[in-house]
Amino acid sequence: xxxxxxxxxxxxxxxxxxxxxxxxxxxxxxxxxxxxxxxxxxxxxxxxxxxxxxxxxxxxxxxxxxxxxxxxxxxxxxxxxxxxxxxxxxxxxxxxxxxxxxxxxxxxxxxxxxxxxxxxxxxxxxxxxxxxxxxxxxxxxxxxxxxxxxxxxxxxxxxxxxxxxxxxxxxxxxxxxxxxxxxxxxxxxxxxxxxxxxxxxxxxxxxxxxxxxxxxxxxxxxxxxxxxxxxxxxxxxxxxxxxxxxxxxxxxxxxxxxxxxxxxxxxxxxxxxxxxxxxxxxxxxxxxxxxxxxxxxxxxxxxx
Length: 304
Fold this sequence. Notes:
The chain is mainly beta.
């Protein structure tokens, strides 16, 4: 079955009151989820969770209105999957930054309605000769998504070969906020980070993270929940995680966002990336026969 054959996808995987497949922005095939808890849209290209909006609330994920939705192009916003490396490739600068997983097709493997009313979807990355040329390791990767009162995303990497490999990865999650000047990120106090804006200099986080200029930081050796306190929307976004030792915080700020061309005027003010990752010093070694699962659980609370 073609991964973007909508009729076949709906015949096999649609669930009334939960999920159907349709043509999305730019003609991309998407899974549209609507249940009693929330609504979401997931592109089959990249198994990319584009939106998640709990009932009666503002969107939790930020998706650019000026994004380029096209085959082979990364989507600006939502939850891009960085895999099997984070940032530039360690030895070959010609390979795509953040890996290839976010711009290639994935297949739907399973959908299900959960007893609590949530919707479950399982995607598998479709291997091609081009992918094998970039990643010559015997492995497979799946994304498990649960859309409910919480959004759960889990990336499962299996080593089916006879040699270990190193893995860099991230959920490059864009969060919708009222204004970058009216929020703070807690949970990283006292953590060491590498500041990419200042030549990867090593620093220690003092207090909550507040943003008033370009920020691009990889926080190391941290497994704590991150909390985005948004005073404008009077809510707290909680990002819990498992099997993640890095957290990346990113906002390109005005000049860089304008150069990127798909943020829109002042688009960077309504978003911040807090990424569940294993990057730089925290890359993962996956041994033969082993499975590694990167999990993020996103939820929303009222801000007192």
